[in-house]
Amino acid sequence: MCFVLLVEDNSTFRNSLKEMLIRRFENLQVAEAADGNKAFEKLENTKPDIIFMDIRLPGKNGLELTRIIKDADPGIVVAILTSYDIPEYRQAAFQSGASRFFTKGDVNSDEIADFVNTALLQRGKDPCLGVSFSAGTM
Q: CA-CA distance, 36 to 58, in Å (whole number)?
């Protein structure tokens, strides 16, 4: 099973992203967290393949959360999604361990879907079927 965690305090954006992901990837499980505390609660019970992380969140910011998550599990793919396309944020995101940086106003659903598809394939998972596979097997 493929699993994504959305850490975003804007419920409208979070719901739109969730709906788009579910439409594109029928077997994708999507969990949501509106802040860092909720994100850590979700992480106690699940291991997402991908986390979409906002930077400005109530409590701990997304960059700090990304650093903590990547220190605990370097295999989790974290993509920053923010409204602020500031060079310092980009640099800090990658220094925190993020794999990708998206600006909310500039990214489209195809770019996000391509990113999810690539990230899942790199983790050895079929994005359409939601199952793991080994090279050379069908």
A: 7
- Going along the chain from its start, the domains and CATH numbers come out as 2-132 (3.40.50.2300)
Quote the CA–CA distance of 92 and 61 in Å, as a whole number: 12
Task: Write out the two tokens for 107.
Answer: 């990214």
Q: How far apart are CA 97 and CA 53, in angstroms?
A: 12
CA dist., res. 33 & res. 26, Å (int)? 21
Give the whole-angstrom CA distance, residue 57 versus residue 34.
8
Q: How far apart (Å, rounded) are the C-alpha atoms in residues 32 and 52?
A: 10
Each residue's pLDDT tens digit, 15-56: 999 999 999 998 899 999 999 999 999 999 889 999 999 999
